[in-house]
Write a structure and sequence with these properties.
Blueprint (H helix, E strand, L loop, with lengths): L1 H15 L3 H6 L2 H23 L1 H9 L9 H39 L10 E4 L4 H15 L4 E7 L2 H10 L8 E7 L5 H6 L7 E4 L8 H16 L2 H12 L5 E5 L4 H11 L3 E4 L4 H11 L1 H10 L6 E5 L13 H7 E2 L2 E8 L5 E5 L10 E7 L6 E2 L25 E4 L14 H9 L1 E2 L10 H9 L4 E4 L3 H14 L4 H4 L2 E5 L2 H10 L4 E4 H12 L5 H9 L4 E7 L12 H10 L3 E6 L5 E3 L9 E7 L7 H4 L2 H12 L1
Helix pairs in contact: 3-4, 3-5, 4-5, 6-20, 9-11, 12-13, 12-21
Keywords: Membrane, Transmembrane, Transmembrane helix
Length: 627
């Protein structure tokens, strides 16, 4: 009875297999196997009537039907021809359907990605194309092709990106667009997250609010760090000093930042508008030069910052003083050291005059071509003398600033201007309920008569664009007035229209600066600490020496001599600034120079800055240090 029951059970299973529904839902390879098995059975069934050879030949090629002889072979052969044509049409249909499905999967982003050495960007926002612009520049400089995987949560975002993507824009990038459930770790496994060099979670567009957008990213972060295998992978890579460059973008909400930092345990860099970028924008409102400096340094073309292993120079540099190294290198400007201290902690030393290079240190350079840097030992004495004629710079200055609107927060602007200037700014901060008041001639006359040094247009993109164009139309011939205008924008298209329309006023694009920052740290994680150090007033910063005020005109003639004189004040020469606030890094031509750009230890001449700092700005600084 048991044997009979087993036979019945097997028969029931066999009867369930050849149903049309199961065939239609089966994988392609199963469908093809079923067709080939059926074909083989038919050939063997017809063999007694036609011979095995003739049965196969007629099935494969109807032309062989002409070899059939006699009534029986003619009838059976005709049946074989018909069955062969039907089964071959099945094969064509299955393969066609598979191809259509494959193409649809490509278009919808449902395919996996099985490679290594790629970069992953999760979510879409307006900064993503700008980030890709920077990655394309880097790939072009390296004569390489970078593989980029974009992971979105829905098919509509995939379709919109594909429709807008111009293949000619990113010629040096191999972009793969994928879609899936971002709260499921299998989605990340499908795109080879363990083999990726970097992972960037962008703040998604289209969320109801920043609160919901933060929640989406925090859930994605939770999905990643809760996977013990992936967390162990990140920790092992970090311990081996080859970390995966992971970062997550959040809004300015303080709680979201704290949550992300606690969850990731320093495995992810947390990016918010109020940290590094916020401080740069705040200082850019005081002097547009500093925005331009960071805008240039954060790009992959032009003068950028590089970490270089001293061993690549083939010389024993360990133990040499900073001064000897600073004057010995050509092809780039040495900014400092970066390495691991005896406690195993990462440290960065900028402007380390009087300090020697240790065996664990790397070198930090500002250069246009890192592979052109050479070291030429010199027998000259590196004793430096302080010259009283050179007045060290400070990041806190006296500046008459006017701000129109309150669309973006002022940030820690109080760290970069003195108390009197801050009081004047509060009186010169114009916010009108009626937008028409911004376009009143009376208001324009007030702007012109108040002798402001900077006029910051801090409105939404549409109103800011309109007001800037209106000011240009009214004062098109007044270059001195137009140079004072600094328009803060978020939309790259609007910024592009304004910057190409008129070159006298200045535009600040926060998203573009953010995109460059994200692109940089997606390749070199330690750059976030460097930019953090440079962006805030504590420690080392970019500073300006005004020629004729901080340094005599007669000392600004020869670059080598100027570099030596500035080093005597523990200042690193970086470049010049002309009358139109254009920055020229590592320039040897001082004809048009109005200011000297240096790297120096901050000297805050505003002792009340910390006292009047708002709670938000204080929190921002503390969190940056934790990062």
């Amino acid at each position: 009875m048991k044997i009979l029951d087993q036979i019945k059970g097997a028969w029931k299973k066999l009867r369930r297999l050849p149903t049309a529904e199961r065939f239609a839902l089966a994988p392609v390879w199963v469908q093809l196997v079923a067709i080939f098995i059926t074909s083989a059975v038919l050939i063997f069934m017809m063999a007694p009537f036609l011979s095995l050879r003739l049965a196969y030949m007629i099935f494969a090629d109807p032309a062989y039907y002409s070899e059939a002889k006699g009534p029986l072979q003619l009838v059976v052969g005709l049946l074989q021809v018909l069955l062969g044509m039907v089964l071959f049409s099945f094969i064509i249909s299955v393969l066609s359907a598979a191809l259509v499905k494959y193409i649809e999967n490509i278009r919808s982003g449902s395919l996996g990605f099985v490679r290594s050495g790629h970069m992953i960007f999760v979510n879409y926002n307006v900064k993503l194309p700008l980030i890709l612009d920077q990655l394309d520049i880097r790939a072009k400089e390296r004569s390489a092709t970078e593989e980029i995987v974009l992971l979105f949560s829905d098919i509509d975002t995939v379709a919109n990106f594909r429709n807008q993507m111009d293949p000619k824009r990113w010629k040096n990038l191999d972009i793969f667009v994928r879609q899936g459930d971002l709260m499921n770790f299998k989605t990340f496994e499908r795109i080879s997250v363990f083999e990726a060099l970097s992972l960037v979670i962008l703040l998604p567009d289209g969320a109801q609010s920043h609160f919901f957008a933060d929640n989406i990213n925090l859930k994605i972060l939770t999905t990643l760090v809760n996977n013990q295998q992936y967390r162990k992978h990140l920790e092992e890579r970090k311990a081996s000093r080859k970390p995966v460059k992971c970062s997550i973008e959040l809004s300015n909400n303080a709680d979201s930042r704290v949550i992300a930092q606690k969850m990731s345990q320093a495995l992810f860099t947390v990016i918010t508008p109020g940290d590094v970028i916020g401080s740069i924008l705040a200082r850019g409102k005081v002097d547009i030069v500093f925005y331009k400096v960071f805008f240039e340094v954060m790009a992959f073309d032009g003068s950028t910052i590089h970490f270089v292993n001293p061993q690549v120079f083939g010389l024993e540099l360990v133990g040499k003083s900073f001064e000897e190294l600073y004057f010995g290198f050509e092809g780039g400007t040495l900014l400092g050291y970066s390495g691991i201290n005896q406690a195993g902690e990462y440290r960065m030393r900028l402007c380390p005059f009087g300090q020697n290079l240790t065996s664990s240190d790397w070198l930090l350079f500002l250069t246009t071509k890192v592979n052109r840097i050479v070291f030429r030992p010199s027998d000259d004495s590196f004793k430096l003398e302080r010259l009283d004629d050179i007045i060290p710079p400070t990041e806190s200055v006296a500046k008459q600033i006017c701000v129109i609107g309150n669309h973006n927060p002022l940030g820690n602007i109080d760290d970069f201007i003195d108390v009197q200037s801050m009081r004047a700014l509060k009186e010169a901060h114009f916010v009108f309920d009626n937008q028409e008041e911004y376009f009143a001639d009376k208001f324009l006359q007030r702007l012109k008569s108040s002798n402001f040094e900077n006029i910051v247009v801090n409105l939404d993109d549409e109103t800011g664009f309109r007001l800037t164009m209106w000011l240009v139309s009214k004062e098109g011939e007044n270059d001195d007035f137009l140079k004072k205008i600094v328009t803060i924008l978020g939309d790259p298209v609007t910024e592009n229209l304004l910057s190409h329309y008129h070159l006298k006023f200045n535009t600040v694009l926060s998203h573009k600066l953010s995109a460059r920052y994200i692109a940089q740290i997606s390749f070199q994680k330690n750059l976030d600490r460097l930019f953090e150090e440079l962006a805030f007033p504590e420690g080392v910063e970019f500073n300006l020496l005004e020629i004729g005020k901080h340094i005599p005109h007669n000392l600004v003639n020869d670059r080598k001599e100027l570099t030596r004189l500035l080093a005597g004040q523990q200042l690193i020469y970086l470049g010049i600034v002309d009358e139109d606030k254009n920055v020229y890094f590592e320039s040897s031509n001082f004809t048009a120079a109005k200011q000297i750009l240096v790297l120096s230890q901050g000297g805050n001449e505003n002792p009340d800055s910390a006292k009047r700092a708002t709670p938000e700005s204080t929190i921002s600084k503390q969190k940056s240090v934790e990062l």
